[in-house]
């Protein structure tokens, strides 16, 4: 989660991305096997992606408003993961969610995934303090390319020349749309680069948990991951001093009824976003979700222009058009590839 617009991790990443069952499946399955996302109807993909964009923008705006009133980013992320845990528990109690029987190794994989989830947020937050926002956004726009590299190296998946070409306007477009004061330290650059890698690994790992050997539902992944992520967020909040600040702010009467209601609405929307985001990843694929991340940056700028009278330069406007054009071209390439796969 972007919650909109928040160790031994290398070994954990490897475990998330490729299990022994995946290796056996690769040996038994020809390299030309059809990716799971090409078996899903286009209308279903568009429905989930549309809901993803709406909820993502809604949560982003809500997050910005809450953080202006109470700057506790880790506790805000805790509220998101905690509400997701509660929501999934309600779904389980009402019979909407059925749990699979998992081995110790598979449960450890989910623990590693929850650690990846919170570490990704932590690295992003730390790197933002060492680089300018425009530089951070440009670096993050390369996530689709890193996602392609992960699939090629770990799963031997191939892509057409057109797919690679579509990445160019997507990245250049975001770069132009967010063009501004580019500033970074060496440590900031390296941490931002690590954040790009972790974000891409998280997106691929999310997809593999639902389409790989485990084949878990989006609700089950969230049910098993959210409590662990919530606990980890509390540790981060304590380590960063947010809990101490929260106690001081609470005694100062900062938490009015209106603010508490806003937090409740925000947490509920975050649960909906998490559910839709995971399901969209399952039906549309990790690469498409990475591309959507670039489009979301453009839509966020557009929303800022409409709602907050943000003034942009002509170069920024051109970048938005280029990014949207790149996304449209990528969509056409994917549709053509799906048609070709269905006829073979």
Automatic annotation (TrEMBL):
Tell me if Cell inner membrane is a UniProt keyword of this record.
no
Q: Matching Pfam families, A to Z?
A: TPT (PF03151)
Region (Disordered) residue spans: 1-37
UniProt keyword annotations, A-Z: Membrane, Transmembrane, Transmembrane helix
Note the topology in the membrane: Multi-pass membrane protein
Name where it's found. Answer: Endoplasmic reticulum membrane
- Leader sequence range is none
Identify the GO cellular component terms for this protein.
endoplasmic reticulum membrane
Q: What function does the entry list?
A: Involved in the import of GDP-mannose from the cytoplasm into the Golgi lumen.
Known partners and oligomeric status: Homooligomer.
Mind telling me what this protein is named? Sugar phosphate transporter domain-containing protein
Q: What's the source species for this entry?
A: Zasmidium cellare ATCC 36951
